[in-house]
Amino acid sequence: MPELPEVETIIRGLAKRVVNHRILDVDIREPRTVVGDAAKTARRLRGQMIRGIRRHGKYIVFELEKGRKSSCLVVHLRMSGNFVLDGEPGPHTRVIVELEGGPAMVFRDIRKFGRWELSDELPARLSELGPEPLEISESEFIEKLRGRRTMAKALLLNQEFLRGLGNIYADESLFRARIHPRAIVSRISPRRAARLHRAIQEVLTDAIAQGGSTINNYVNSEGAQGYFQLSTAVYGKTGGECPKCGSAIRRIIVASRSTHYCGRCQRA
Predict the structure, then answer these.
(1) Domains, the chain, ranges and CATH?
(2) pTM, 2 dp
């Protein structure tokens, strides 16, 4: 599933070319992609001006305007969704958006799990998500850890704790912070918590700079792959050598997700 760095990379690419362009036509080829009535959604989107695009966790939010009325289109890529500007339509194309004086936005989704939702304002359930990992302060982060008797990896995957963090970047952040994925959060000292806060922000920043990670079918808005996966320290490296101490990277299951770590470097 595309995580925060992949979504951020897609948004930055789209923003350069679609903002301040009007939607001329919308071809919804897979009605299940749309929450609600697909035909009605297509009609409502026609004529809308794209005034902005931003990320809310793993969600893409298009800020729209038609006359004096504003609305938003919320897109969740789920497992395999992606946008490619002026991409060639194919068997996995679910939606095509034609823009006045701009590129066509081609939405592809092999697994058909991606969802589009048009509403007058941001859906209420999105307000229940936690703060942005790149924006939360060190003091707020440490305070949010206080009293939680859950494992560190499970908490980092909880979108109500932090929105947008996923499996790859949780593993890499815990490695950089030298914290075991099964460490009980309430037992992590403020000093180590501060180190984890810093590690999360550094990992996410590095991943965005490298265009995200292409593990399966992820590509950016120009159709190019990311390459952070080439520099991961532990994720997907089961049996390989830890880049710090040379010990074998281990794999366990935490919160039903494959989890990679170094048993020597990462303490509970």
Answers:
(1) 4-128 (3.20.190.10), 138-262 (1.10.8.50)
(2) 0.94
